[in-house]
Structures are given as structure tokens and as C-alpha cells.
Amino acid sequence: MTPTTGSAPSEDGAWWRSAVVYQVYPRSFADSDGDGIGDLDGITGRLDHLAELGVDVLWLSPVYPSPQADNGYDISDYQDIDPLFGDLAAFDRLLAAVHGRGMRLVMDLVVNHTSDRHPWFQESRDPASPKRSWYLWRPPRGEAGAAGAEPNNWGSFFSGPAWTYDEPGGEYYLHLFSSRQPDLNWEEPAVRHAVYAMMRWWLERGVDGFRMDVVNLISKDPALPDGPLRGDGLQGDGSPSYVCGPRVHDHLQEMHREVFAQRPDRLLTVGEMPGVTVEQARLFTDPARAEVDMVFQFEHVSLDHGPGGKFDPRPLRLTDLKASLARWQEGLAATGWNSLYWNNHDQPRIVSRFGDDGPLHRVRSATMLATVLHLHRGTPFVYQGEELGMANAPFASIGDFRDIESLNHHAQALAAGEDPEQVLRGLRAMGRDNARTPMQWDASPGAGFSTGTPWIAVNPDHTTVNAAAARRDPASVYHHYRRLIALRHSEPAVVHGDFTMLLPEDERVYAFTRSHRDTTLLVIGNFTGASVRLDLPPQWREAERILGNVPGTGPAEPGTATVLAPWEARVHRRTEGSAARCD
Ligand code: ISL
Q1: What residue ranges define each of the domains in the chain, with the CATH number in brackets?
Q2: What element of type H or E holds 192?
Q3: How many helices (H) and strands (E) does the chain have?
Q4: In angstroms, what is the span from residue 346 Cα to ligand 1's centroid?
Q5: Do the Cβ atoms of 134 and 124 come closer than 8 Å?
Q6: What backbone torsions phi and psi does residue 574 show, to the nearest 5 degrees?
């Protein structure tokens, strides 16, 4: 499909090109029963917030039965609901309420691994079981259980080796994440067909698609060779053997044939893909290959990782961000499609990370970041609370953290003799719990999230940063997101326009154009807390301004000044004359 033809977003069934997705992390969104943990009825009770924001799709992070070792990304039953969150009847109520508001619901599909409590894994622990081949079991190298006896040297994503010894069978099982998350063996056809059957079951129930957790890691090089030593010198990097591994495209094409191809409705599939390159992403999202509609890539949210990894952050260089995002825009311009995000449940809050969460600049920097992101070509994802400008949490000590990744990293770093204060600084800046503090609905002690004791502390800034206050204030981050989403729905150039990066060498201003037919949009964002003088080309000086975040300047006011206020964002529009329109 060519980007510049057609303005009807659904002309090829790809309705999601003009859609905005809102991610709900159920544990932290809304608690209806006062147990301190969010639940399905809580979400159903807050759907008007999503509808009024204007989003099209709700992506629900996992709600399946789970021991909650990784907050539901460790699933022990794929076809039920964890009692923490409700039951299937509550799920059906939520689904009906979503559909009743004209929105769609996308489930999280976590099938690289299961929980160690999943019956499949429990059976698999017996070497004589037909399920033995459903997971990746390997004999020790040398004396079982001794240091270095693991079948290879891979480290896990959550610290420590990627192998755990299991006494009954005398072998190790592979887990790219925690030991409570054993990896499924996608070489085993019975595994694949069990997954497809489960997916069809959810689609029959009425869900509208899947966000597929780490789906580019499902195919491993069967030789499982050692990897080069990682920076910490403790383990090897196995990623060359499993990031976009040998059969991943075969598996996704088979999944498409088995689950999606025969369905009359057009669903949404998003592959979460750590380490994916733009070249690989083009293959994954080429409609002709029938794999997935879009991928989550990680390049732009890794640019501030320092030499010691993600918990050793360094300041972002704007030119790196521009180079990275421009490469993805260009790489998927003719074939494929981008997803656009700043935040999810694994990332620190964007206003604290690339903006300024202090009282002076929080609203302005959050709205600038939103404007720049949403005006790129692709499908934007809003993570709960992002539309309020929610910020990182002031975690005082390690006791305030809940996330397995942070707790494991802390234990490993302290065991290695690292400075505890330095380790805490890294966790405060980059820890995933920053995204997981309760949604801030109002200024009450439980932030309107829960009447009980929340499972993780509410950010004390909820007394001023909350949905109730934001709704009352037309200049709030929330109303800016509403305007951005409305613009996507009304302006074809936002969906279909091609993308041209401007000022690639400028360390302060992010600027680009989007052109579609006779319309060109110019998007400008000041990534600094200082005023910046900008020489707009003459044709833009009198252009209509259709969106901005500086109070006192109306969105349609012509004759713009060329001094950008701190963290200012603007979107200008120019339309060619009638002669051009008649082409
Ligand atoms: O945040 C990360 C660790 O630094 C990422 O590597 C993250 O683990 C990766 O993006 C995969 O994320 C997904 O799978 C994980 C789960 O913990 C995350 O919450 C999920 O989004 C394992 O299922």
C-alpha cells in the first residue's frame, strides 16, 4: 500500500492505522472491592474516562490466573481469570461495556513462557511425561547443581542464570525471565497448536486481538550455544540465539493461518519485540507476509541506557532520539507500520525521563512529548496515567519497590559490592514500578484508586496530579491528549502523511513535516526548559496553527512568533491552493 493514497482509514481493513490504543495495567488501575489491587469491575466502572479521551482500543495487561511472580506475566491457566481480578463473568461484562462504547479490547498474550505452576510445566517435570518436550530441558554440564553446570552460559533478563536445576528429572529448564517463568518449546507442534486453540477461544469470546509478549523470542537456536560474556562478566548474552530466532517468522505465519486468516473480522495484532531491528520489523509487519500488524521496538527507549545497562542511565541526546525515530519512520514508510509509544508498564514515566516533572514544566513538557509522538506516522499507545502527566515515584528505600526485576537487580548488585545509594538511584530513575503506582483519579488519600491499602504506594503528587483536577482544567495534559486524539481522527495527514525529519543536528528542537495530498503539517517541539529562537521558513510564518501547548495562543491564530517558549509544541498546517487540489 502506498502511504499517500486514500483517506478512508479502513479502506484496506487496517482500521488500526487511525486508532489510538490505551493500555490498562489492571493491578494499578481501579480497585472495586477494596483489597488494594485493581480489578476488572474497577476498569468497567472507569470506561467513560477512556471513551471521553477518545481512544479506540483498550489493551489489557494479563488478568489470567497467575502466582503473580511477575504481576501476571507468569500465567498458570490461559483460559480463566485470576480471582484477584474477578472472573469470566466480570470479563464478559467488561468486554460488553467496551464494545458498547464503540471501542475494542485487545488481550495480552504471554506464550514465550508460562508460570512454573502451569499444569503443563508441572507435568513436564517428569522426564517420562509426554509434556517433557513442551519446555526446554537440558542435562547439566558436569556436576548437577554446581556453579557453571548450567547447560549454557546465558543470563536471564531478571538477573542470574537463565537455567534452573530441577531435582526430579535431574535436568535444567530454560527461563529467559525469572525461574518462575519457564520457556515453552515452540519447536514442539503440540505447544503451538495448544496456543492457537487458546487464542481462538478468546476470539470466540469476542476479543479484538492480541498484544504478544516478547513474541520475537519464541524461536531458539536448537543448539543453545554459549553467548559472549555480558558487561557484568557473570553470564553470557544468549540474545543472538533467540532474538528473532531461526523459525520465528514460520511460527507467526502459522499462527496467522491457524488463528486469524479465516476470520471475517479484522483484528489487531501487536508483537512486542525486544532487540528487533527495523529490517526485521519490516518483515514482521509486511501485510503480504501475514505475520503481525505492528511491533513494539525498544531502540528509542534504550538511548538513555548507560555503559552499565538500564540501571546506569545517562542523559538523552536529542539527536540520537531523532536519528533513531527517523530511521524507523523511513524504514517502515513503504512497507509495514510503526507503533508509537513513550510509556508502558515496563518503562519509567516519560515526563520524568525525557521531560521535566517539576511544578513549573510538568504540563508543558508532558504535552510537548505527547504532541511530538502522536504526530509521527504509526499507531500511538497511551499508557494509563500518561494522559495526566503522571511522574516517577519518590521511592525512599528498597522496601518501597515491588517489581521482581528491581528486587533481583538490587540483590545481585549489593552482593557484587556496589554502592547501595547508587543502586537505588538507578532503580528510582529506571525501575518498572515507576509505571505501576496506582492510577491517580482524585486527590483523596487512596487517589480514588482504592479504599483499602494499595499494593504499592500512591504517588504523593496525586493531590495535584489527578484525573478529576485535569478534567476541570482546559490547559491540562488530559485535555491536550483529547485534542491530539481528535486530531488523528479528523486530519488524514496525521494517519497517512509521509514523514520528513527537519533539523536532524539540532540538540534542542525536534521538528518534522507530514504531507498528504494537498496538506502539509509542520510539527515542532522544544525539548529544553529555555526559550529557543527558530527561523521558520517563510512559507510557514503565516501558517495556521492547529494545535499548541502554550497558554494564551489560540490554536488557529496566524502570524506565529519564531521564539519557542520552554517545552513548547506546535502543529501548523498548510494547504496548497485550489489548482493543486484539482490535480
Ligand atoms: O523491562 C525490561 C527489562 O529491562 C524489558 O526487558 C522487558 O522485560 C521486556 O520488554 C519484556 O517485557 C515483557 O515480558 C516480560 C514482562 O516482565 C514484561 O512486563 C513484559 O512487558 C516477561 O513476560
Answers
A1: 15-116+184-484 (3.20.20.80), 119-174 (3.90.400.10), 497-575 (2.60.40.1180)
A2: helix 189-205
A3: 18, 20
A4: 6
A5: yes
A6: -125, 140
Q: Tell me the C-alpha distance between 556 and 547, whole Å.
A: 8
Radius of gyration of the chain (CA): 24
Quick: pLDDT tens for 211-253: 999 999 999 999 999 999 988 788 999 999 999 999 999 999 9
Residue 450 grid cell: 482504592
Q: Which atom of ligand 1 is nearest to the CA of 432?
A: 1
Angle subtended by helix axes 88-100 and 189-205, to nearest 10: 60
Query: All 3 cell numbers of residue 341?
Result: 509509544
Q: Within a 13 Å sphere around the CA of 84, how many CA atoms are in the beta-carbon half?
A: 18
Secondary structure of residue 422 in the 3-state scheme: helix
Q: Tell me the CA distances in angstroms from 258 to 182, 186, 193, 197, 247, one per residue in order.
A: 25, 15, 8, 9, 16
213 is catalytic: yes
Whether the pTM exceeds 0.85: the reply is: yes
The angle formed by the CA atoms of residues 274, 277 and 282, to the nearest 5 degrees, is 115
Contacts of 444 (CB under 8 A, 6+ apart): none
Site to probe by mutation for ligand 1, drawn from 107, 118, 346, 353 as the one with most ligand atoms within 8 Å of Cβ, is 346
Q: Tell me whether strands 104-109 and 209-212 are parallel, antiparallel or unpaired.
A: parallel
Catalytic residue among 82, 213, 304, 491: 213
d(CA 389, CA 8): 32
pLDDT in tens, 11-31: 467 999 999 999 999 999 999
